[in-house]
Amino acid sequence: MKFYNRENELRMLGEVLRQSRQEARMTVLMGRRRIGKTELSLRCGDDTVLYFFVGKKTETLLCQDYLREIREKLDAPVLGQPTSFSEVFRFVLQLSETRPFTLVIDEFQNFLKVNPAIVSDVQRDWDLYKGKSRLNLIISGSVFTLMKRIFEDYEEPLFGRANEMLALQPFTTDVLKQILKDFNPDYTPEDLLALYSITGGVPWYVSLLLDKGKTKRDDMLAALTEENSPFINEGKNILIEEFGTDYATYFSILTCIANGMKTRAEIENELGNHNIGSYLVKLENYYKIITKSLPIFAKENSKKNRYQLNDSFLTFWFRFFYKYQALVENRALKALGDIIRRDYSSVSGLMMERYFAQKFQEQGRYIVGKWWDRKGENEIDLIVVDSIAKEAWIYELKKQGGRYREDVLQAKVEKMLEQTPELRPMRLHLGSLSLENL
């Protein structure tokens, strides 16, 4: 798959590269695995890019890898055989004083396992040499919690050292549509919804499907459970390192949410565990994997909150692959494939709501949300508010548009206005959105 999007990020990296020709600059790229950090880093615009991957090796072996990269890319003599990253990094900083270039350090957080002192060494040498150096340093990492700690915790050595910090996001809805169109000009709305539901716009997942010609809904769903499919264990690969030894409890909670349990009470009842409060707080505030949402314009102390996973792919993975882990472990992939096809519609409805909400949010001018009452008897799928123009669009979402009844929606709106005074002065537009509007 060709390189799509990232125009704003590339402009920023180009500007930082220009600045680094006068004095060293540090850029930090963060984002979930598979989001495209490495590819973006290597497209920074420099003719000479050193690439250091922090694998799970000893420091000595990593230094040997890095010395080979230096010799191959810079044809520079390296004296001796350094065994500490500090020696290598100091050499790179000094070398760039007379020969500017870019250094990409990928999966930087792994240094904490290799040798935690490396972070302090990087801070010391950066502070000593950055004034004379002309190094364009790009640091990336995919374990969100560790990267946040390293660069945003006031007590950590590298706090405040980065000149730019960038969190990469999945493809926008418009870009995802364009990509699918390039691969399949005759795609249907069902095909687009399936691509969004499975991948959430994460570039690596999109590439996995489309590069293999999986451009139709049924083909995409079938690809998930093919022999050796990388989707099968992907959730574990992404999150086990984040959660550590508590991963089983976190995974159980996320499975409940992915299966439509939206409140703490529902989750506790399902798990038979009334001590999950701290886990929910960490999932929301520390790991940033779930969001506690409220009806539009509800007060922060409202008790109408609901939980949802932020990541569409993880929603899909916990709904099927982790929930039916016994089938995965027994390699009963055909049975799992049948379940995915059978129950896909229960996920795609939620994903259609998420798609439309994201589509409006991407325009950068609307407050976007939904509404429900405390008893759950009345619910409105999507509300889009232009607070400047004092207008609001209220939508019911139906896969098939012909099932929409405005009188039913109007009755819900009247209930909502009783509890949401912020909407009363606005000009309201009622309607429906369906697959054809994707």
How many strands appear in the DSSP assignment?
Answer: 11
- Report the total helices: 19
Helix content: 40-55%
Overall geometry:
globular
Quick overview of this protein structure:
Helices cover 48% and strands 15% of the residues. By secondary structure, the protein is of the alpha/beta class.
Please tag this protein with its features:
five-stranded parallel beta sheet, 19 helices, alpha/beta, 438 residues
What does this structure look like?
The protein is an alpha/beta fold and 438 residues long. The chain is built from 19 helices and 11 strands. The strands form 3 sheets. It has a 5-stranded parallel sheet. Strands 8-9-10-11 form a 4-stranded mixed sheet, with helices on both faces. The longest helix is centred in the last third of the chain and has 29 residues, at 333-361. The two termini are 23 Å apart.
Write the layout of secondary structure elements.
Layout (H helix, E strand, L loop, with lengths): L6 H14 L4 E6 L6 H6 L6 E5 L5 H16 L10 H11 L5 E6 L4 H4 L2 H13 L5 E7 L2 H9 L11 E4 L5 H11 L5 H11 L3 H8 L6 H7 L10 H10 L3 H12 L5 H8 L5 H10 L3 E4 L12 E4 L2 H11 L2 H5 L3 H29 L5 E6 L6 E8 L4 E7 L8 H14 L7 E7 L5
Parallel strand pairs: 1-4, 1-5, 2-3, 3-4, 10-11
Antiparallel strand pairs: 6-7, 8-9, 9-10
Helix pairs in contact: 4-6, 9-11, 9-16, 9-18, 13-14, 13-16, 16-18
